[in-house]
Amino acid sequence: MKNIEYYLTDNPITPDPNDCRAQVINYEVITEEELLAYIAREGSGITLPEAKASYEGIISAISYFLQRGCGFNTEFIKIRPVILGVYRDDDDKFDPKRHEIKYRVTLGKRYNRVTDNVKVEKVTPPNNLPLPANVEDLASKTVNETLTPGGVATLTGMRLKFNQNDPQQGIFLMDSAKNEYRVEEILNLTGTKVIFQTPVTLNADEYTLEVRILLKGNKNLKKGVLTDRLYV
What 3-state class would DSSP assign to 170? Predict the structure, then answer.
């Protein structure tokens, strides 16, 4: 069992200049294929085709009810609908151009004690590497989930500062086919926070975010990858 590794970084939420927050790093992300392979592992009595069929059945059922505006309260997950966007006044109504329906998802009670046996380990952040930690998409109000083409997003972490005038450096997004998109519009840039405009050219896909920097006196780029995949 792998420990959850974390390092401490400045806590921007409070005015205390000394307090810190924990940032999880280097955790393993399980893919659908790995999940299905575990369900159909030797001795489980379930074949891989059966696991895939059941998985697709659950996804289809959840989608059926979500499309009808329902929420969920199960031992597995809890889902509730929310509406994002600003309303001009009390007489304003939902406008798809200005407002958006989203679903908030949390774990159900089946997982209440799932962290009881998980161990953590404090580590030292890798030297000189950019450490992208969280991407907040302002349009969707999500963190490490969604990117809105043409929208504004905030990246936080450590050692994020780069020379935007150098085309080798910056924030890069790679889709599932490994096509690269460089973020060209940087609205604010510090070592711990980058506010940027997501490229309008992004197609619906899964993206990997990578920060590339070139330190003074070095010839080789330093690269840091966001652990979570982002979706358009």
Answer: strand
- For the stretch 89-138, pLDDT in tens is 999 999 988 888 888 888 999 998 888 889 999 988 777 888 888 899 98
For the chain, how far is it from start to end, CA to CA, in angstroms? 33
Helices 32-39 & 48-66 angle (0-180, nearest 10): 120
Over residues 71-90, the mean pLDDT reads: 90
Q: Using a cut of 0.70, tell me whether the model's pTM lies above it.
A: no
Q: How far is CA 7 from CA 122, 125, 127, 152, 162, in A?
A: 6, 6, 12, 27, 22
Tokens of 197: 């405009």
b/e 62-96 (16+ beta carbons within 10 angstroms → b): beeeeeeeeeeeeeeeebeeeeeeeeeeeeeeeee
CA dihedral angle for residue 135, residue 141, residue 147, residue 151, rounded to 10 degrees: -110
Taking the CA of residue 207 as centre, how many other CA atoms within 13 Å lie in the half-sphere pointing to its CB?
A: 28
